[in-house]
Inverse folding.
């Protein structure tokens, strides 16, 4: 006797645990691959999965086996021209030629073990190192604002959602359906009754009249029994919760592109922008990016130009801040937009300009933005701009943060710092500043 | 009779109809099977089943995750189709059918797995001796929950470390001659606790450091341990490693038991697949002869069958070794031919089976052989000619290969001997045994590798020795002997390099 069992509805993810164990074990490799991918992608292109490759020798599970060499006999099928006693040249190293290498377990496999991770996993790996505070993690993973929307009518609900018109319409229809036939019959009988009462002679007619009267009484009581409103007439408005992105945000990327900024420094700056962008993306539905680069004068540019074109010349940081302020005035009113800004520089600035920058920030920009972060990417001592900004971080502890990055390895720790500060202003951030004030 | 079906869409009713007919025919041919449990699953579930290397429920380990990722990627890329079926040596015999398959394919799988493999599991002497089909699922349940408990108590990482090491030595965790006793779950759980206590006592006794009387000590020095070389490395470690905790010993035991369970399958690949393929071919042809299936059904089945038994030549880009389906199927077909229409040559080579009852002979072959002896016994000159087999001698000292036999009178026996040896596990795997333990000294464990034909160990062995070291806890020495002379030693940890 054979039994047939339909298992198709059983869970299909029996291997999930094992898959996670694998990912856990090769975390280091996966992280490396993720960070390589981050360097290659555009800031706005972080939300997709990635193909991860791990060298096969690292995932290899060793077993005791024979190696190459010694004296071995091997049998092959499909002889065409060989005769006993023939000698055949061995293929030069690498194998793959006639009758070699097949028996061994080396050489036949790929050099890389590769697999695909989903976009969630990809992002988790990016964020993992940031050691984000719990509060921040929560905002990254959940969407806590909902609005209720109508979604038709349902048969169950609470009294406050009762749709009177729908319910009455149903009741009416039901009453018609249940009593129309009876009413018609009643009408006919009443007509006949009337005729009989007008000519009340004859025994037969009398009997008929009695019968009719009785039937009329039954019909009337039946019609009366059809309820005016029944529970299954009731209709309720259906309300569903719909997640609402809190709002829109604009992110300003400001970067010094003067001659002193090398491509390496720009790469580091890119990571900085990417992470801020990703962070914002979790909280806002719509994010606009504005790239402003500057040397002695500032200019709004595309992402491509921003990262990869070079200019030479001196540095006047305030030009970028001014341009940013103008753009905010022009296009992003603080009451509608959450404004974030990230500024990266090697710290060089025209000496007289630095105090000017600080006052620009303090008087015009910081009152309007949610958050302004500044990183100074330099292996040397702090530069003029740093000293000018230092005072700002005490005056605006929630809105302004700055840090120094010496090499790419520092970048995550810097973020931890920046986002830790963010935590404090979390409550303000969830709605545009203008409204919360 | 009318056709069972004319459509290629399957339904459970149709599957049952096919099963009933196939079962009837199979019984007519004397196929004795365990009851069948046929499970229909989706492609994703098939990938899960695949990843767990043929165990219906396995314990968790990263390596299965690796298998899964590799399978998933190949499948999604289209580089690999999934197997049509997976069948498990258990009673009832569990076979998986994939829902994507067409009806003729499902019928083929039922014939192949549920009557072919199933009867092989039940009939072959290796399976009968080494595996207990009725207990395996219970044992897997026990193993899974035991390992889970260990993970909770000792941490995933600790458990993984032991498992990694055991997996590396899995092929050396089998008894080749002793027969293990079958037991059920409850017994297993009870015994396990008992074992923990007793085992630890014994181990402690072996490693007693308190000095005894002088005479005894002198005697002890002379005694070598183990008294005889041990082939089952995992068993030896489980029983004698000085530092292992009871739960670690139990995990070694679990891996060892599973290795033992899979051991017959590793020795009967050609026979098992050949037998199943022979029977799906024969059973479905009988269905056709009885008028139960139409030409369309047969064409679809034969297309698939032909692909399965194709043997590309050694110089073909598709060549990846000798196809066990092809060799096995053709050998069983050939035995049938020798019984029914023996040629002069057959009568000379196979006097005892030529002209005998084919069904009886086939069953005899299935029951009493493994790949190595099966080939040695039944590979006929005709088949060697059909496959155009040739033997290549590879001596690393020579820049050329030597063709030392081809499909002619002089070559048949050489080819048959060499092919048979190619399937002999004791040739395929290096011969490594536990040789001695330095009981009174540094507690190091010495293994002896007896070299065959100067074939060296692969570089993996260094890694495996590290795993061995993890389990044993003290130094490991591996001595390689060739023709009675010690030619190489390796140690782990390698003190010479420090």
């Amino acid at each position: 006797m054979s039994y047939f069992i339909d298992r198709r509805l059983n869970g299909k993810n029996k291997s999930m645990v094992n898959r996670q164990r694998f990912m856990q074990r090769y975390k280091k490799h996966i992280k490396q691959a993720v960070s390589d991918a981050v360097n290659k992608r555009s800031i706005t292109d972080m939300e997709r999965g990635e193909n991860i490759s791990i060298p096969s020798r690292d995932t290899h599970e060793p077993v005791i086996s024979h190696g190459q060499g010694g004296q071995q006999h091997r049998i092959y099928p499909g002889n065409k021209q060989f005769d006993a006693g023939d000698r055949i040249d061995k293929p030069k190293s690498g194998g793959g030629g006639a009758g070699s290498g097949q028996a061994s377990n080396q050489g036949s496999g790929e050099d890389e073990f590769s697999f695909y991770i989903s976009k969630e996993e990809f992002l988790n790996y990016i964020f993992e190192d940031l050691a984000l505070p719990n509060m921040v993690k929560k905002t990254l993973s959940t969407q806590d604002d909902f609005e209720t929307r109508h979604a038709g009518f349902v048969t169950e609900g609470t009294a406050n959602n009762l749709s009177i018109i729908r319910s009455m319409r149903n009741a009416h229809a039901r009453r018609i359906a249940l009593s129309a036939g009876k009413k018609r019959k009643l009408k006919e009988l009443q007509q006949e009754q009337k005729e009989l009462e007008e000519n009340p002679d004859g025994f037969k007619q009398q009997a008929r009249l009695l019968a009719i009267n009785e039937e009329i009484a039954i019909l009337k009581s039946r019609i009366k029994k059809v309820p005016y409103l029944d529970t299954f007439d009731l209709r309720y408005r259906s309300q569903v919760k719909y997640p609402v992105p809190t709002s829109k945000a604009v992110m300003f990327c400001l970067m010094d592109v003067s001659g002193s900024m090398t491509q390496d420094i720009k790469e580091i700056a890119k990571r900085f922008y990417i992470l801020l962008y990703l962070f914002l993306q979790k909280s806002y539905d719509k994010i606009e990016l504005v790239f402003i680069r500057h040397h002695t004068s500032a200019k709004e540019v595309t992402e491509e130009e921003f990262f990869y074109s070079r200019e030479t010349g001196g540095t006047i940081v305030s030009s970028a801040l001014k341009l940013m302020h103008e753009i905010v005035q022009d296009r992003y009113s603080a009451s509608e937009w959450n404004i974030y800004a990230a500024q990266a520089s090697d710290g060089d600035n025209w000496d007289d300009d630095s105090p000017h920058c600080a006052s620009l920030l303090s008087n015009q920009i910081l009152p309007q933005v949610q958050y302004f972060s500044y990183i100074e990417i330099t292996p040397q001592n702090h530069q003029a701009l740093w000293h000018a900004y230092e005072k700002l971080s005490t005056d605006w502890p929630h809105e302004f943060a700055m840090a120094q990055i010496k090499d790419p390895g520092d970048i995550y720790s810097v973020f931890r710092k920046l986002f830790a500060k963010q935590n404090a202003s979390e409550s303000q951030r969830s709605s545009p500043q203008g409204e919360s004030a | 009779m009318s056709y069972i079906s004319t459509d290629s869409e399957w339904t459970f009713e149709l599957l049952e109809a096919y099963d009933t007919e196939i079962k009837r025919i199979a019984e007519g041919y004397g196929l004795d099977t365990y009851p069948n449990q046929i499970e229909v699953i989706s492609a994703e579930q098939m990938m899960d089943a695949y990843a767990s290397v043929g165990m219906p429920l396995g314990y968790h380990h990263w390596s299965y995750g690796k298998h899964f990722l590799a399978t998933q990627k190949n499948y999604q890329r289209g580089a690999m189709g999934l197997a049509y079926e997976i069948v498990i040596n258990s009673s009832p015999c569990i076979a998986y059918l994939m829902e994507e398959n067409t009806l003729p394919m499902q019928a083929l799988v039922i014939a192949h797995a549920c009557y072919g493999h199933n009867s092989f599991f039940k009939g072959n002497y290796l399976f009968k001796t080494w595996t207990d089909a009725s207990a395996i699922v219970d044992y897997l349940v026990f193993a899974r929950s035991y390992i889970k408990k260990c993970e909770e108590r000792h941490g995933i990482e600790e458990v993984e470390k032991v498992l990694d090491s055991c997996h590396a030595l899995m092929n050396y965790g089998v008894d080749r001659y002793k027969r293990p006793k079958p037991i059920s779950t409850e017994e297993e759980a009870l015994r396990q606790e008992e074992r923990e206590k007793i085992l630890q006592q014994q181990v402690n006794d072996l490693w007693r450091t308190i000095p005894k009387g002088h005479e005894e000590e002198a005697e002890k020095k002379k005694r070598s341990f183990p008294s005889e070389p041990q082939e089952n490395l995992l068993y030896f470690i489980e029983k004698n490693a000085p530092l292992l905790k009871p739960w670690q010993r139990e995990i070694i035991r679990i891996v060892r038991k599973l290795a033992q369970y899979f051991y017959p399958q590793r020795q009967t690949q050609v026979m098992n697949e050949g037998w199943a393929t022979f029977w799906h071919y024969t059973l479905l042809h009988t269905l056709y002869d009885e008028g139960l299936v139409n030409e369309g059904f047969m064409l679809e089945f034969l297309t698939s069958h032909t692909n399965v038994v194709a043997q590309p030549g050694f110089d073909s880009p598709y060549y990846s070794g000798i196809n066990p389906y092809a060799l096995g199927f053709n050998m069983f077909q050939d035995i049938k031919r020798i019984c029914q229409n023996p040629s002069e040559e057959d009568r000379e080579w196979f006097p005892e089976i030529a002209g005998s009852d084919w069904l009886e002979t086939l069953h005899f072959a299935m029951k009493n052989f493994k790949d190595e002896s099966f080939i040695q016994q039944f590979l006929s000159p005709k088949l060697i000619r059909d496959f155009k087999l040739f033997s290549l001698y590879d001596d690393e000292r020579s820049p050329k290969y030597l063709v030392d036999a081809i499909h002619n009178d002089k070559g048949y026996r050489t080819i048959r001997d060499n092919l048979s040896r190619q399937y002999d596990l004791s040739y395929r795997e290096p011969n490594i045994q536990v040789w001695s333990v330095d009981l009174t000294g540094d507690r190091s464990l010495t293994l002896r590798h007896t070299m065959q034909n100067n074939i060296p160990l692969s570089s993996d062995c260094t890694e495996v020795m590290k795993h061995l070291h993890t389990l044993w806890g003290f130094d490991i020495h591996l001595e390689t002997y060739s023709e009675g002379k010690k030619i190489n030693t390796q140690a782990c940890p390698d003190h010479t390099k420090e």
